[in-house]
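Long-time lurker. I teach an intro course on protein structure, and each term I like to show students one example going from raw sequence to a predicted 3D structure in token notation. This year I'd like something fresh instead of my usual example. Would anyone be willing to generate the tokens for the chain below so I can use it in lecture? Attribution to the forum is fine with me.
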Amino acid sequence: MSKADKYTTIHYHNYLELDALLELQRPRSVAAGVDAHDETLFIIMHQVYELWFKQILTELDSVLLLFREERVREDNMHTVLLRLRRVTTIIDLLIEQIKVMETMTPLDFLDFRDYLFPASGFQSVQFRMVEATLGLREEDRLTYHGKSYKIVFDEAQQGRLHHIESGGSLFELIEKWLERTPFLRFQGFDFLAAYRAAVDRMIDHERTQIENSGLDASMKEMRLRMVGDSSTYFKHVLDREEHERMIAAGEARLSYDATIAALLINLYRDQPILNIPFNLLTELLNIDEGLTTWRYRHAQMVMRMIGNKIGTGGSSGHDYLARTAERHKIFRDLHNISSLLIPRSSLPDLPPELERGLGFYFQGDPANA
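-- Reply from a regular --
Happy to contribute to a lecture. Here you go:
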């Protein structure tokens, strides 16, 4: 379409291609001469899911493009945040849509289920593209009958998935962005050293408070275990080698420098310049949590519809879906930052120059000074 065409008239019906769209629901039961009323609902529900997956991919691809710049411009960060929030909102809607599917009873589903074999939601290439774009690696996935998840896709679809996996996921780009955080060392301020000292002070204070409390011995012991020490929750951020060991063992994925940067952003989130980065990291957690909730609700719906039967695509049905809800988390490292947080009252003071740099500091026109 040329630019001049934007001034031509268009009808709502034609703009949305409604003739084509409304012809896409073709129940197999009808072709077989069976009146399975709810198959149309089943088809529309999954078509709507695929349309939302397309929109999620549109948003994520635009975010990847912005993050692939060698230096992510600050004026792009708000755009990134808004688009990630749109993804979160869409995922919330996907979860709500399950309620519509659940208006169909198991008996209604059985009227047409036999016509679906071997089709399965497992074969949604767009959803696999969403997962891969976010950063779910093949080695972190549950296998499909012991084989690659790509086995259910044709050669062209496998090529699209391979292209995404080799092109740099959102997880990898976020990791590189965090590693470039400039505030970890600033004119003599060593964040990690200051954080270590703050952790030690906090732990010593809490231990003293517990020891001097009127709690009985068993309760004191439990509370002391909850407090921990620098060799428990905090060990991997205070010791680079320990963090590298955890990555090698599959207990962590985010690099050491990126983890420290995420910790700093979380601790000093109230500083104006760190507000958008903090909200961006929070939105990644929201996306992860939303997908986990969607998988879990999907698993519960499947249990409600077919119990312990095998899925139409040959998977273990409910059991497989429930296990993906736990296993297929992508930003687990960002969730784990919470175990490293300390109270605001214990935060190391920032040098005045750094605090000004993290704030909206206006320096007047030197000519008028």
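Some talking points for your students: Residues 272-306 form the longest helix (35 residues). The mean pLDDT is 86.
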